[in-house]
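Continuing the batch. This is chain 6 of the set; chains 1 through 5 are on the previous pages. Same settings as before, nothing changed between runs. Recording input and output for traceability.
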Amino acid sequence: QVQLVESGGGLVQPGGSLRLSCAASGFTFSSYWIDWVRQAPGKGFEWVSSINSGGDSQYYSDSVKGRFTITRDNAKNTAYLQLNSLKPEDTAVYYCAARSVGIDYWGQGTQVTVSS
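Output for chain 6:
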């Protein structure tokens, strides 16, 4: 059974940090790119970051570049998103997705709330 489970979300003050995890099972994790996508309240999905299957190429949206870092550990079937210098506009549900040719899997999301 394919599963992607996000964790690590929570309530944090502006300027704070969080580390999101995306634990995968039921498929060959190391063959898939990983995307992080978020959805703010009342808004559509926004792509945040991607990492290739080998973990040596990372991509970021302009809104998070320099503040967020995506990594993966293929031995642990887990991807991570380090969120630093958080802003209120980063408040959203964060989803990880595993992507290959013609196939993608999504997790259930984890809530990140940035507020004082």
